[in-house]
Amino acid sequence: MRALGRPLVYVGALVAVVLFAGPFVFMVLSSFKQPQELNGVVNGFLPQSLYTGNYENLFATGNFPLYFVNSAVVALLTTVLALVVAILAGYALARFPFTGRRLLLLAVVAMQMFPAVLMAIPLYKILRNLGMLDARSGLILVYVTFALPFCIWMMRNYFVTVPKEIEEAALIDGCGHFRALWRVLLPPALPGVTAAGAFSIILAWDEFLYANTFVNSDEKRTLSVGLDSLVGQYTTDWGQLLAGGVLMTLPVVLIFAFLQRYLTQIAGGGVKG
């Protein structure tokens, strides 16, 4: 039975790889196809030649570099702000007893239940009153709001797993709470920080609804909205759209490849509630 189970595991892993990586591989190959291949005049799974015109036209005819920079700035600042607040809040929820702590934690987790569409109108009015419409700062504020519940929950659960005796020993040796947090609690919680950061950067990188609703200026658009502008009412430049999709997906793939060894520790070590 064990001898039969190993091949089944390999087959299942192969099927999963094909299902998840297949669309990306197809997108990469298609981005190097010529217009007549993409329009169906010439059929074939593989490109006839390594045609780079789609990438050249993407950078030459549009504001793709500006969209890329906007997305990078928004995603980076969202991640940094979310992690700073989540680490401090998670530490407080894990270490400091106060009235209503469990209720506050449940409220933080419950915030994840609200769909994005439901919050669009209230957030629009808040940003309008703050004068932050059509601004990257307003978009960052909204993304931090949505990233915080998961990040706080993740950091709190990781801090709980660190024995209190280690932190108490650091405090006795003269460390303050912030220094103990930095030197004692954060190193064991690094997988949680990585997971929270990955969640935040992905949320801000590929989000479309709020980026399309709260930002109107072309020079402030993010990648998701910028690529959507390539889809016309009557015609669509599939070559540029596929090339843009590859360049938008590639940073995410590289980030997960770099953080893989930290993310796998979550599955291996588990998280205590």
TrEMBL record:
Its main location: membrane. Residues 68-259 form the ABC transmembrane type-1 domain. Gene3D superfamilies: MetI-like. The keyword Cell membrane applies. It is found in: Cell membrane. This is ABC transporter permease. One of its GO terms (biological process) is transmembrane transport. Keywords: Cell membrane, Membrane, Transmembrane, Transmembrane helix, Transport. It is a multi-pass membrane protein.
